[in-house]
Structure formats: structure tokens, C-alpha cells
Amino acid sequence: MLDKMEFVKPGDIEARSMEIITGELGDTGWKEPELSVVRRCIHTSADFDYNINLKFSKDACKKGIMALRNGADIVTDTRMAMAGINKRRLAEHGGQVHCFIDDETVLREAKERGMTRSAICMERGAAIKKPVIFVIGNAPTALIRLYELVQNGEVKPELVIGVPVGFVNVVESKELFMQADIPWIIAVGRKGGSNVAAAICNALLYYKDEVEF
Amino acid sequence: MLDKMEFVKPGDIEARSMEIITGELGDTGWKEPELSVVRRCIHTSADFDYNINLKFSKDACKKGIMALRNGADIVTDTRMAMAGINKRRLAEHGGQVHCFIDDETVLREAKERGMTRSAICMERGAAIKKPVIFVIGNAPTALIRLYELVQNGEVKPELVIGVPVGFVNVVESKELFMQADIPWIIAVGRKGGSNVAAAICNALLYYKDEVEF
Question: Which of B46, B83, B167 sits opposite A17 (nearest CB)?
Fold first, then answer.
């Protein structure tokens, strides 16, 4: 079995993976920086459905990249996404990641108001007094609450990465959010998750080319 | 759009999700505790491929559950899996999670020996002097190195959860490990990842029924 394996040096594994993904994708019509995002989502999941699922509002990637380069913070509803986002790269630009899900005041308030902790986390994020990118990899309730906050003018995110995963109101929450007049990246359908959320952030953080408007 | 949504109380969302998954799966032939593992992998990914991809050596789930209840530690190659595993539940039994990937000595040794950090992490795990479950959600090189350690008699894991994801030697590393004569849970093919790795651990940690041999 070992002799069937391809020899790839440790430092070259990611590049080789991207080469395989690019080859199998063929000509998709994606341009950069969207193509980098699509590829990294497939890289983290081995699921080519992300070639079809991912939707971008106009210039969402460029706007996200610019926001990150200008030091935007990231607010996420999941500890796993927080663990996966390249915080060193983010900090180089002046940003940091926040996940309020384990905050005791969030837990208490969620119970009192009959809401999910994830939804309360979005309110905490909306109170941050600097540019913020919201990254939702778990709970559709967070995406719905964030939509309400946006519509009420209580927050104006630089970008929303809306990739909650699951079966209860996930599809609907994404369709709802795509109506918002702010930059968004959404994986339509049931699929998504913290790995996809982190992958999209990292694709934007790693994007090397100049981004112009 | 909001009026199309199903009203489910925050505390009931997971149960409702599992109900939907069970309904769509239909009669799969899975028995418990394997069924709980399959369902939780689908829950974390919305990908029903895990109904087909997941393979279990004889009594792997039971053995894993018993090991966790007896206080086994978990060693993983990914920070995201570490973030996702229910550490409070694990600690109730006396276990803890280790991820050595950011250890500076691991980085140095990987460079010196021309290996991946993930592979060196398995060696660190093998040196732990108590029962250990190995959980590989990222790197096939970790699964390959662990196989060598097992074959050389240098470690005898209680269970190996082998769900690396990707395109370079991932399929082959899993086929290789399924030859090992220790308990394993493997997602064959390219798919897997840190979310799936954490989901399998949590399915075993949350399993409520008595497990008998």
C-alpha cells in the first residue's frame, strides 16, 4: 500500500492538492478572488458541491480582502472556526477574532430571552466599535438575527460569511440573508460548517494578488 | 421569508435535526452505537455520503465508548477538532485532549526529519503513558505514521478515528490503516475533516445507552 502513494514533500502538499482540485474543477467560469475561495472550500471538505453552492454578492471577496487588510475584526458563532482562522495573519493587519459563545452573560441572556446563544453573539458583535466581518459557520439563528440587525440599521458589516450547516431553517436563513444590501458570501443549501467558514476567511487572508476597485 | 421558517425552540433544534436526518436516512441497517456516529457526522456536514463512507472495525464504537468512560485521553492532529470536542464531558471521565501541532519542538523536529508536523504529533501521542484515542481529522501523513507506530508495537491505541480529508494520499492512507489490528473508525475516500473528527468523538461521548460486551 505504501508503494502506491505519491511522494510529495510536506511543504508541497497543499500546492499539490490545489493543483488536483483545479484540474478536476476544469473551467468553471470563476475568476479570482472567488476561485480561491471555492478551491479552499473544496480543499477543506473534499466536497465539489461547493463549486455550485457558493454565491457571492457583487465584489464581496474584494471588499472582504480590503476590510481584512484595513484591520477589520472577525466575529464568529463557532469556536471551531475561531480555531481554524489564521489569527497570526489576521493580526498582521491589526484584526482579531471574537467568539462570544462561551461568555456567561451570553448564556444567561439567551435563556432569559428564549434565543440561541449564537443569536446573542451577533448582538455582541454588532456592538464592536470598529469594522467587522461576521462569520457564521454553525447556527442559522445567528444569520437570521444578524439580518434583523442589518435591516434595523444597528450594524453595517464589512462582509458576512454565511455558511451555517444543518436541517432546521438553514436553507431559509441563507435565502433571507441574500436579500441584504451588504457584501455577503453564502453557501446555499444545507451545507456549510465551521471548516468551510474558516476556509473562506483564510482564502481571503491568503489572497496574494493586488485587489483593485 | 421569515414566515416560511419552522419554529423550533433553541433547546430542541438538535433533536429536530436528528429527527430529520433519521427520517431521510430511512432504514440503513446501522445499529447503535454506529448509527449515532453516522447521524452526527451527517449533522455536522449535511452530507449524507457519511452514511456510505463510514467504516467500523468490529465493536470499534463500543470499545471507544468504554475507553472514554475509563478516562482515556484524546490526541488529535488538528486544533479545530480539539476546539470541537466536548472537553467538559471528556473531563468528567478523567480524559483530556492533546494537540501538539503548535509545539515548537514539533515544528523543529518536523523540519529536521523532513516530515509533517502532524506525523510528529502522533509520535508525541504515542509517548503518553495512559490509554489514548487518536483522532486524525487533517493529515494522511499522521495516519500513515500512526500505522507504522502500531505495526512496530510502539503504541496500542484504544481506538483510532481516521478521517483525514483531501487529495494527496488520503484515500490510500485510510486503506492502509484499515489493515491494522486495533479498533478503528474510518471515513473511506477523500472526505473527512476536523468537523467530522469532532463529531465522531462527541457521538461516542454523548452515547447514553449502556454498552455491554
Answer: B167
C-alpha distance from residue A49 to each of A25, A43, A193 (Å): 11, 12, 14
Per-residue model confidence (pLDDT) at position A176: 97
For the beta carbon of residue B128, count every other beta carbon within 10 angstroms: 13
ipTM (interface pTM):
0.95
Catalytic site residues of A? 43
Spatial contact of B67 and B159, defined as CB atoms under 8 Å apart = yes
List, run by run, the mean pLDDT of 10-residue segments along chain A (213 residues): 80 93 95 97 98 98 97 97 97 97 96 96 98 97 97 98 97 97 98 98 92 66
Compute the nearest-CA separation of A57 from chain B (Å).
19
Q: Following DSSP, what letter does each residue of A83-133 receive, concatenated?
A: HHS-HHHHHHHT--EE--TT-HHHHHHHHHHT--HHHHHHHHHHT-SS-EE
Are A125 and A98 in contact by the 8 Å Cβ rule? The answer is: yes
Select which of B39, B43, B145, B191 is catalytic.
B43
- How many percent of chain B have pLDDT more than 70? 98
**Rounded distance between C-alpha atoms, residue B191 and residue B160, angstroms:** 16
Chain A residues inside the 8 Å CB shell of B176: 1-2
Mutation for B interface: A45, A106, A115, most B CBs within 10 A: A45
Q: How confident is the model at residue B1 (pLDDT cuts 50, 70, 90)?
A: low
Decide: A158 and A67 in contact? Cβ < 8 Å: yes
Q: Which domains does chain B have, with CATH numbers?
A: 2-206 (3.40.50.10230)
CB A81 within 8 A of CB A134: no
CA closest to B41 among chain A residues:
A166
